[in-house]
Amino acid sequence: MIWITLFFGITSLNSYSQKLNVIKLDSLLQALSEKQLFMGSISISKDGNLIYSKSIGRADIAGNENSSYKTKYRIGSTTKVFTAALVFKSIENNKLALDQSIDKFFPTIENSEKITIEMLLKHRSGITEFLKSEEFANGYTEAKSEKEMIAIISRLKSDFNPNSKADYSNSNYYLLTIILEKIYKKSYPELLDEQIIKPLQLKNTYFGGKINLRNNECYSYYFTDKWEKDTEGDTSVPLGAGGIVSNPNDLIVIIEKLFNGEIINLKSLKIITQIQDKYGMGIFELPFYDKKGFVHRGSIDSFGSIISYFPDEKLAIAITSNGAIYDKKKVLIAALSNYFNKPYKIIFQPFRPSSEDLEKYLGAYTSLSYPRTIAITRNNTNILANFSDESGSVK
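Below the sequence we write its predicted structure tokens.
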């Protein structure tokens, strides 16, 4: 598979790259490409200077189109970094407050009078993940209106009492998106464009719609015995919880500007990076040996993304993928280990369970917290999950 490396003169001319073993990192990504374990892009910057950028795999397998530094990907939950920033910009402009409750916006949601903006940001609301709803049991390829989504979330029972603990839920950031739209009387794409994209002069970032290859977007793929094109989720469902399109070059700009106080002020930055029960506000802590960084990961369809930043080193790494057997987190660890000169081991062979191991997991599964029966079956070496409808028939 063809791969493309973009050096921008960095290999021998840029002193920032001296800590990065470019040849070793190139070899890793080339091997991942040749073994069909990963398709995507990575960019690394130091002190605001791009020191590495590489893309492997295909943007469109059927059209035999290679990925490049221009390729744009759906970034899934990494969108939450943008949404948290927009919320804090509204707080700085006295349009919202962290301690205000959400009941005036969503009176039909359980415990809304007890849930605050801060709890939504930190996933401490107790509001159930909307993707657990029956409406999304087979994915979300159909558009949903705000009215439909709020009705779905309102029907779900809370998972726990507000602020008693933290548990990740896309519902929190969907609701934050609607709050932003209500207080500004503008759509999320408009707010994103006006408050982040245009001021930072980003050329490859926007709220996504139907995938358009002519706009340098790519399809996503899952692997059976070959790469298979995945379906497209409708971005009206996740909105500010997961609907943005971008690429690593833009993502490293975003995270650098965020930590430089150029999107929100440094007082707000200090607040969002305070970690409680492993959660910040739109960001998570990323310890690496004696280094302290911050990170957010995302997945949507078969796309994946990671955005990370180490403030003391002013090091940013962003990864996007449109097909992966090899975990994107392992690619990040490999890049960090390379830069910080730490030992790391790469295992290219994916886990292949024995036939006897697979047999242990076959059968029908039910749960009091999930209304449908899940039938686990096998197809050669693959495990398949089939969800029943209300009549009990399996799809």
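DSSP finds eleven helices and 17 strands in the chain.
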